[in-house]
Amino acid sequence: MKLLVLFVVAMGSFLLVPAGRADQGCRYFKSRGGLSGFEDGGIYILDHSRLTRGRADLREFLWQHWSGHRKGIAEARIRTAGHGTVRALYVVQPDPQGRWGINVEIDRPMEPPCTAFFADGLVRVPIANPGDDHLQTAGLWPLDKLPPNLLADSGVVDSKLYRLMFVRNSKPLFSDLI
Length: 178
Prior knowledge:
5-stranded mixed beta sheet; 3-stranded antiparallel beta sheet; globular; 25% helix
């Protein structure tokens, strides 16, 4: 029950973006102009309750581009239980100060329709039982600290063995993981 409350609070605060700012922040869904030279990872299909090839491939694409400082763009289409299909756009690039990160835009059939954020980092969280679809797709983490058992940035690991957590200023951006 405690985790459910934490999730609701975390997602509620994540979704509180003023409409004007959300429109401004979701510029890549409106136009992908200015993204020439970015590797296009394509579209990945994700499901809320099972591991799809798209989920593992998206993890691999994002990790390789962010850790390797390579510009890339990818779109995920996430089938949800109660909100239809949610689209997420990931743009891996440096910010104006030259720090590598990921611009994320989330377009969904609810208010506000589009939100955006910038993650200045990614961390890989190992999955205890990689054969369990539920552990591949569900899980919450507190917003005040990073998990203690992160995988080393330099280690080569199959993307079915970890989940990705978006980070800003060394703290999780939200409690759900890819």
